[in-house]
Design brief:
It is built from three helices and no strands. The chain is mostly helical and 70 residues long.
Length: 70
């Protein structure tokens, strides 16, 4: 059962990542995966880390664009 769930999660991550920009996602996924591994939830940590990393990268890009416009 665990292998089936793991396979579905991996396929879902691949589909989502193909539509999203990778900015910040890879670094966040690594950090989240390591942190999640410590709590025995590595996949959930990696997914959350990817989302947070992508969000932070988008915010930083907006700030840089605003600073360049001044």
């Amino acid at each position: 059962m665990k292998k089936t769930i793991f396979g579905v999660v991996i396929c879902s991550m691949l589909l989502v990542s193909s539509f999203a920009q990778a900015a910040g996602c890879l670094k966040g996924a690594v950090v989240g995966g390591v942190a999640g591994h410590l709590k025995h939830h590595a996949v959930i940590g990696a997914v959350a880390g990817c989302a947070i990393g992508h969000h932070l990268a988008a915010q930083e890009k907006k700030q840089q664009a605003a600073a360049a416009a001044k």
